[in-house]
Amino acid sequence: MTSSPFEPDIPMTAAEDKHHLRFSVVVIHRNGTDRLQDAVDSILAAIDPLRDEVIVVDNHSTDDSLTQLAARHPQLRIISNPCNMGYARACNQGIGASNSEYILLCNNDLRLPANSIEQFAADLRDHPEAGLIGGQLLGGNGALSRSAGPASDLWSELGLASKRRIDYQGEQPIQVGAIVGACMAARRSAILQAGPLDEDFFFYYEEVEWCVRLTRHGWSVMIDPRVRVLHAGGASTRPYFYGSRVEFFRSRLLYWKKTLPLPAVCLLYAWRLPRLLLDVVFYLTATLLTLGLSGKLRHKLMDRGVVLAWLLAGCPRDWGLPDKCPDRILL
After folding, report:
1. What is the pLDDT of residues 66-76, one digit of tens each?
2. Domain of residue 96, residue span
């Protein structure tokens, strides 16, 4: 695992320290003034400023979103990176800078409900076995969105089993295999034991690997259906479709190697890569037969095509999302 800026300098018993904060809300940001302002406004309305803090980690935004945020909320702690560190490393920077028993890792395109921090705190207090808890995500239109489910394994990666469920119901947290990384409430003692996010992942799959690792260290991963978090989703990568597809597939290959036994990894390579080629041939044929009039077919063709091109080019390290820090150009 790549070295992390997270320093385990807070002892396991820090929760007993009366000067110790309850929650650090860490917002990972790159571009998007309005969505950052909306996210921070909802977070500030949800926290107790005497017990909680907010940390914004910026992955080298190229707009004026940080300037506007600092002018509007000068009390916030901001970590400004000189280049794009990736999601996992930015999360770890926030964890390393935090001073709390619990850490809530957030995307910059969500809105927390007013009771979310209190509910997450109660969940983590009432379920000492829980290392990580997420909420039920809602799409931009308020519809239920994929939030959690079994962790990706051989069967789901072969396309033979579902990865995530859309809706969860109930009045208590539910144990799951993995949660979507848009909103994750983590226990510091679990991070100290299992480690922070794996920085070998630049974008995608980092939260799934983290859930698997926490579970293997004896911690539970949960979702609380009562905490309903509005999450637009995909806002930061939408302008970079081709690069995001490369990052997704690169992280997928990395996830196989880190979490699955070697025979399963070999089987996935033998199944997934030829299937990718067949998908490109199929969608190219279908697009030509429909004279390119189907936007859905064109989208699927581009999705598969850019990944196949990356593989055929020898998996260039500099393909993917833009503005990466030099040491973040990974396989």
Report:
1. 999 999 999 99
2. 12-231
Strands 77-80 and 100-107: unpaired
Asked if residue 289 and residue 148 are part of one domain, the reply reads no
Mean pLDDT value of segment 205-216: 98
d(CA 247, CA 86) in angstroms, rounded, equals: 11
Give residue 126's pLDDT. Answer: 97
Based on the domain organization, do 85 and 204 belong to the same domain? yes
- Domain boundary at 198, 231, 264, which? 231
Alpha-carbon gap, residue 286 to 301, rounded angstroms:
9
Task: Supply the pTM of this predicted model.
Answer: 0.88
Question: Which residue, of 211, 231, 251, is where some domain finishes?
Answer: 231
Q: Quick one: 180 and 296 in the same domain?
A: no
Residue 191 lies in a domain: yes
Is residue 3 a contact partner of residue 92, using CB atoms and an 8 Å limit?
A: no
Does 6 reside within a domain? no
Per DSSP, helices labelled H in 150-294 are 154-157, 188-194, 206-216, 241-259, 262-289
- Map residue 147 onto helix, strand or coil: coil
Q: How many domains does the chain have?
A: 2
Q: Does the residue 3 lie in any domain?
A: no
Helix 206-216 × helix 241-259 angle, to 10°:
20
How many residues are recorded in the chain?
331
In angstroms and rounded to an integer, the radius of gyration of the C-alpha atoms of the chain is 20
Residue 250 lies in a domain: yes
Q: Nearest to residue 79, comparing CAs of 50, 47, 54? A: 54
SS3 254: helix
The secondary structure of 256-281 as a DSSP string is HHHHS-HHHHHHHHHHHHHHHHHHHH
**Residue 99 pLDDT grade (very low, low, confident, very high; cuts 50, 70, 90):** very high
Alpha carbon distance 84, 87 (integer Å): 9
Cβ–Cβ contacts within 10 Å for residue 219, how many?
Answer: 22
The whole-number average pLDDT for the span 242-246 is 91
3 state SS of 213: helix
